[in-house]
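Re: folding output
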Amino acid sequence: DILVDGKVCDCDIVVTCQVGDPVPLQVKLTNWSKHSVGPFALTMMPYQDYQNGVHNYDLQDAITFVGSNTFHIDTVKPNKDSVYFGALLFLYTGDFYLNIKFHEDNCSRELPLSWLCLPSVHIRATEPVA
């Protein structure tokens, strides 16, 4: 589950926020399997989609993370959750997307070494209301 500014997000929803206001992020990983999983690295990567096949990930002048954009998840037990909190601060207006990826690097290899990607989150940063 992904929450942006307290609202549940999926690929069909555009979340609107204001430039200059920190936007709280929450990512919850739920283990529905019968076995513990992990460790994972959770990485959040913002980008702009130019709608021509080009994704711009060089956004250090437009977006900053409050805290880290990468979290370590040790182990998630069966039928349990692991929740991670962060925040984004938008410095300019525009339409931005957030890739959220889990990298599994457990040496037992119950899962293949891979990126587990969630659908991108669409965030629209607008001018502050005066």
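--- second protein (sequence, then structure) ---
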Amino acid sequence: MSGYGDSPPAETVATVQGRVAFLDHVLQELGMRRPVLVSPSMSGRFTLPFLLARGDRLAGFVPIAPVSTKDYTAEQYQRVQTPTLILYGDRDASLGPQALQNLRHLPGHHVVVMPDAGHACYLDKPEDFHRALLGFLRQLK
């Protein structure tokens, strides 16, 4: 992600609209039609505004304790019609529950709390993570 790790910051993603446009461009360049966005942690800065603005272009959304959930209102979340699987580890004592508190306003969501897993639950419990993810993907149209 631009501005994180060794990548330089980019003006184009400095705003919410810029991040939506950037992710939209990436998906178009990859030729992806109705993808499922899997969104761990910091990626929430890109995926949440995209979900709210263009969620109709997604087949599904899988937030994994993403950041920025508190930046949006219950009413904004309630307008989203994208099937959603909310995932987090039970040892993620801050970001996981905070994300759930905000994302619970998404209609038609399912929640999976992974036992004995931390913030990066997909690394702590990869088999459980993949089982939950694949189960969600199978039920999508």
